[in-house]
Amino acid sequence: MNDPQTIARRKPLAANIGLFGVGHEVYWGQFDGLLDELMGYHNVLADRIKSHGVTVTDVGMVGDAESAYAAVKKLKAGNFGLIFCNMLTYATSSTWGIIHREIDCPIVLVALQPLQAMDYTQATTRMQLANDNICSIPEFAGVSLRMGKKVPPSIIGHLYNDSAAEAELAEWVDVARVLHDLRGARLGQMGHSLEAMLDMHHDPTMFTAGLGLHVVMCEPDDVMKHYRKVSESDIAAKSKQILEFFDTPAPKVDPVTTKLTDADLATAAKVAVALERFIDEKKLDGLAYYYEAEEGSEMRTLVTNFIVGNSLLTAAGFPMCGENDLKTCAAMLILDRLNIGGSFAEFHPVDFKEGFVLVGHDGPHHINIAAERPVLRSLKKYHGKPGRGASVEFKIKEGPITMVSLGQTGDGRFKFVVAEGQSMSGLIPATGNTNTRGFFEPDVRTFLKAWFAEGPTHHFALGVGHRAATVMKIAEALGIEAVWVKP
């Protein structure tokens, strides 16, 4: 089988992270050079965070209440998605209390002592103070509770060659990337939710309240004006690009499918060009859409042929959801910023013989996580919806997978339902839709019952790798209820 090509991101992954250190001002006069030594360790941590390709603003050492109040002003001005508090030595909680009270974004306590263990035969008070990184964590935690705040998460370890601590630090940088792109994101909403799917309906204001993003109301005509201006040379260039990424095999047994026709390819290419120009004009970061239009109209041709262009855009870090599922669009954005894909998915038939469930969907997908070159087929009809045209089919990479449903509770608040499983090799239906063989612990029947019991939406975002723990951290940072469905 041919390996799929990778589509480059439209925008690089980014994050804006704040950093400050804490210590005890009294020590600086008692132990000559201690402050400089600690700030050397602080610079090591700063460089390590920067090595992940993110922007770090260091506001320096906070050693007493006065410097804490000064630091608050700088931390507020930084508009950070995440802040690391570097526990450099023992620090009184006067360095912490006002910061945690005033700062709304998540703060992670980092306690990485320079020595893996002290040489007790040579130990001095100075040596102990230089490695006293965890000493203040319980004091800070207690003060956080008194401030009416949650106890902050912490990273505990040693500064050099500690793979566990480095993995935790990298995970929190990933969280920062997600928070960075959620805050201020512009998700387009075009048309309306599919009327019959009540779990898809949503309140755009809740996306601003819960995720910090803005929902941009878009009209199909916003795309149509670009569609009508697409030239034949534009279509030819986009058709060439499409064929570089997709195979176009002959149909198999499904009478709904045919080999991709030249007409369907040209239409898909024309729509893809129009979509790119539309999202650039609207400055969008994602789009959820559903619109039927009049039968036989040019508008119906347009709005029912988003699939190929949307799949290219989704792989480029621009999530696109059919059926106007804005909640799953946001979930796809989260998984994409974790760099694990984020495909539009739902559960299909169960294979009780081999113990798996087919996981997939019709419509747009994150083709960068395809196991092989994805396939384009022409469909004579889209089941359950109007229209016809080119559709995407592939199986995602074999190995660990993560699923994220973003739903809402009875009081209107968001709720994440998260799970992990395995994508395994094997045949999938050649129906012009994506499908993956999903295996789950302890068995498929028990897992599905547990997943359904949490009231998820019927769609969810699907990514490669096991990142449920990271998604739970993101939910905690956002103050959103989350349930990890696991054995």
Summary tags:
6-stranded antiparallel β-barrel; Rossmann fold; 16 helices; 2 domains; L-fucose Isomerase, Chain A, domain 3
How would you describe what is shown here?
The protein has 487 residues and is an alpha/beta fold. It folds into two domains: 16-182, Rossmann fold (3-Layer(aba) Sandwich); 186-485, L-fucose Isomerase, Chain A, domain 3. 36% of the residues lie in helices and 24% in strands. It is built from 16 helices and 19 strands. The chain has helices at 25-30, 34-50, 65-77, 97-102, 125-130, 137-146, 163-182, 204-211, 220-227, 232-245, 262-282, 298-303, 307-315, 326-337, 444-453, 468-478; strands at 16-22, 55-62, 82-87, 107-113, 154-158, 186-191, 214-218, 257-259, 286-290, 320-321, 341-351, 356-361, 375-379, 389-393, 399-408, 414-424, 434-439, 460-464, 481-485. The strands form four sheets. It has a six-stranded antiparallel barrel with strand order 11-12-17-16-15-18. The chain has a five-stranded parallel beta sheet with strand order 2-1-3-4-5, with helices on both faces. Strand 15 and strand 16 form a beta hairpin. Helix 9 (220-227) crosses helix 11 and helix 10 (232-245) packs across helix 11. It is elongated and about 85 Å long. It starts with 15 loop residues before the first strand and ends with a strand. The mean pLDDT is 95.
